[in-house]
Amino acid sequence: MTDLVPNEQVKTRIARRIAHEFMSQRRRMFINLGVGTPTLVANYIRDEIIFLQAENGMLGVGSRATGDQVDPLLINAGREPVTETPGCCYFDSATSFGMIRGGHIDATVIGAFEVDETGNIANWIIPNGRQLGVGGAMDLVAGARQVVVAMPHTSSNGKPKLVRTCSLPVTGYHEADLVVTELGVFRFRDQRMVLTEIAPEIDVAGLKTVTEADFEVDPGLRPMPV
Amino acid sequence: MILDEKTCTVAEAVAKIRSGDRIMVGGFGNSGYPEELVDAVTESALKDLTIISNDLGSPGIGLGRFLINGQVKALIGNYYNWNPDVAAAKNAGAIAVTLVPQGTFAEGIRAAGVGIPAFYAAAGVGTDLAAGKKTAQFDGREYVLERAIHADVALVRAYKADRRGNLVYYKTARNFNPLMAMAARLTIAEVDEIVPVGELDPECIVTPHLFVDNVVLKVKP
Asked: Is residue A2, in this structure, part of any structural domain at all?
């Protein structure tokens, strides 16, 4: 990662910005959160008309369960124990992915290894032979109405994660709608990547040095709230 | 014995499984899988099994036990990152693994249960997991042709059953269980409680009894 933003602030900044994205729409929304940084988005949603869906079969996922609240048979898709919210419901996995595939889920928030400048997403496997899993990643990027990628701007060894062309196996082609990193907010318009917000620690020229993908700058470029 | 009595012991139920069978097992992570049925299969002499499940638990835990004594020939599922034994066994050539996107996996099982041989899905179009599969365009979008996923046996976990085999579930332990109950030739349900016929609210039954062949009571805590 770049050292512009302290490590411990990277994830919370990204999660807060994505939560704001949903709450600012002031409408009922159904959101699926992936594992890792995306899960943190739940901590910043203060809105009773935003409902969290877990693909293992729950709508109305509450906060993470602690202490006596932990029930091993009540988990989210990251296998973490969670709590219920009033009016929550359970369903089987086919109904759950029916919600996703059928266009009933307004947005999914996912992590990614790479996103390229046409909106291709690589987030399911690093081919090193040690991992073997796709989970719901391909279904979610194809089915959710909006695909929001939450990821650090660069990898742990400093390589850009916003690339010209994905080098890793792709999860979905041209599926990314919004990418939020600690350094900026990018929106995809007709398979072109457009910077719409920029963090206070950096300018556009600086951002280009840590971004391999070509991107356009929105004429209404705004500071990213941090 | 009453004709619609389906309850039996774990040993009686597992005795119906044959080596070489394709076995579906419900559960997500180590949550909501039929623990005593899985234990009994792992302690049996059954071999050459194809296990169809979301994941394979953790190393040596839950469904992970299937790998320990080499009973598995093949796996069909979607997420084995929680159990690195799976990638190791595949790399060693000991087992075959077929990955299917989770939603397609769920729908494939449902399709088998409801008599649909194949269906189109957008998940995975153009990716490694769609390699070799037919595609078609509908309304300007490309889809992959996916096949129904059948099994010889389904081992499912439910919360309560009545003696006729109607099932209700508990929280996120429902997951793939109701789908798998429909998709196999032989369905065995492991439950926490068995109640008399008529006691379950008919409006709340999730799996109708015609899908269930046997019910075993979970007795270990």
From this structure: no
Total structural domains in chain A?
1
Instruction: Report the residue from A56, A131, A171 with minimal CB separation from B87.
Output: A131
Per residue in A19-70, pLDDT (tens digit) is: 999 999 999 999 999 988 899 999 999 888 999 999 999 999 999 999 999 9
Closest C-alpha among A121, A113, A125 to residue A177: A121
What CATH number does the domain containing A118 carry?
3.40.1080.10
Q: How far is CA A67 from CA A81, A82, A195, B42, B109, in A?
A: 10, 11, 43, 33, 36
State the pLDDT at residue A1.
63
Whether residues A142 and B122 touch (CB distance < 8 A) is answered with: yes
Half-sphere exposure in the Cβ direction for B62 (13 Å, CA) = 21
Specify if A223 maps to a domain: no
Whether residue A1 is contained in a domain is answered as no
Identify the domain containing residue A96 by its residue range: 7-218
| B127 with A135: Cβ contact below 8 A | no
Name the catalytic one among A8, A21, A48, A55.
Answer: A55
Q: List chain A residues with CB under 8 Å of B142.
A: none
Contact A130 B86 (CB under 8 A): no
